[in-house]
TrEMBL record:
Record keywords, A-Z: Autocatalytic cleavage, Hydrolase, Membrane, Protease, Transmembrane, Transmembrane helix
GO cellular component, one term: lysosome
Native species: Macrosiphum euphorbiae
Xref: InterPro entries: Ntn_hydrolases_N (IPR029055), Peptidase_T2 (IPR000246)
Lineage, opening ranks: Eukaryota, Metazoa, Ecdysozoa, Arthropoda, Hexapoda
Keyword set includes Protease: yes
Entry binding sites for substrate: 249-252, 272-275
Stated family: Belongs to the Ntn-hydrolase family.
Transmembrane segment boundaries: 12-31
EC nos: 3.5.1.26
Protein name: N(4)-(beta-N-acetylglucosaminyl)-L-asparaginase
The keyword Amino-acid biosynthesis is annotated on this UniProt entry: no
Length: 371
């Protein structure tokens, strides 16, 4: 066999090998895009929660590690905060209203089915997140409020109990002795900045919005997002609302798309802060839709926050976001910085993160603290 014949044979072999390699790569790419969601790495299961409520995050993570569902994990984490009275803003004995009474709001969303359940302004029942789950699983409704939510909980086997404590009643008495300052009234007589009610409408209207008193001890909500071993996503919230709120007030926490939102196909988000402002913009829904449109979680959260701050530059709030792959991020405004905690296979323990919040246009960055 001549050298030229060997050369042509060798070239044909190389061509076959090259074609085979290209064929395998193309098939692999098609498999990635059509079967495995673009072959991106899934950092799941995982859990993320607002604020430095690490015991709640740890409980949710333990549930996921015992192959619990995302819904199980969210409810378990929220329940921990309800019992521990996280920062006095979750669970019993916190945030008395103008009458000195504590009420609870909670929300649970199943991102696999888009079913959800919530309670608002629920009195005399401690386990708000568990009741919200039963609204989702045992009714065709989404939200129950007030005394009727309490009656539903009793029917489902929960016991009535006084949600007030010595501390919450003392807080309320101090507020009353301070001429009911601060409060949530506007455009009324007598002047709500100087006097307690009862009030009557002021004929001279001032439509200029005023920011509410919101800081790290009056921020309303724990929000938790979980992705389980099957890739199902759930989100939930629990809160006792704003301190000294007008009786009957329901904030953003139990409102789907505001307090939290989840869709298996894209991801989930949860919001915290000035609930009366947040619920006007549905920031959790906004963040999930931004991820649907291709934005990373941090950018999605920032877009939701920026939309609000453009209208209310003095508001305080934060959004956490997670896509279906377990990538996560957060954005905040008005606070000095915002803590949130995560647990996932990469670290296999609860990690506490901080981001610096925008008050003017600035760059957010993460500082890691491992627990």
């Amino acid at each position: 066999m001549s050298i030229m014949s060997l050369f042509y044979r060798f070239r044909r072999i190389l061509s076959v090998i090259s074609f085979s390699v290209i064929f395998i790569v193309v098939i692999g790419k098609l498999y990635c895009y059509n079967v495995k969601g673009n072959c991106l790495t899934y950092n799941t299961p995982m859990v993320i929660s607002t604020w430095a409520f690490t015991n709640a995050t740890a409980k949710s993570w333990s549930v996921l590690n015992m192959t619990g569902t995302a819904i199980d994990a969210v409810v378990a984490g929220c329940t921990v905060c309800e019992l521990e009275q996280c920062d006095g803003t979750v669970g019993y004995g916190g945030s008395p209203d103008e009458n000195g009474e504590t009420s609870l709001d909670a929300l649970i969303i199943d991102g696999a089915t888009m079913n959800m359940g919530a309670v608002g302004h629920m009195k005399r029942i401690k386990s708000a997140s568990k009741v919200a789950r039963l609204v989702m699983e045992n009714t065709k409704h989404t939200l129950l409020v007030g005394d009727e939510a309490t009656q539903f909980a009793i029917q489902m086997g929960f016991k009535e109990t006084n949600l007030s404590t010595v501390e919450s009643l003392n807080l309320w008495k101090q507020w009353k002795s301070n001429y009911c300052q601060p409060n949530f009234w506007t455009n009324v007589n007598p002047d709500p900045k100087k006097y307690c009610g009862p009030y009557k409408p002021n004929l001279i209207k001032n439509s200029k919005p005023e920011p509410n008193l919101v800081d790290t001890k009056n921020h309303d909500t724990i929000g938790i997002i979980a992705i389980d071993h099957k890739g199902n996503i759930a989100a939930g919230t629990s809160t006792n609302g704003a301190k000294f709120k007008i009786p009957g007030r329901v904030g953003d926490s139990p409102i789907p798309g505001s307090g939290a939102y989840a869709m298996n196909t894209f991801g989930a988000a949860a919001a915290t802060g000035d609930g009366d402002i947040l619920m006007r913009f549905l920031p959790s829904f906004h963040a999930v839709q931004a991820m649907k449109n291709g934005h990373k979680p941090t950018k999605a959260a920032q877009l939701a926050i920026d939309t609000i701050s453009n209208y209310y530059p003095d508001f305080s709030g934060a959004v956490i976001a997670v896509n279906k792959y377990g990538d996560y991020g957060a954005a905040c405004h008005g606070f000095d910085r915002f803590p949130y905690s995560i647990a996932n296979p990469e670290h296999n323990k609860v990690s506490l993160l901080y981001i610096t919040c925008t008050k003017s246009k600035s760059y957010n960055f993460n500082l890691w603290t491992y627990l």
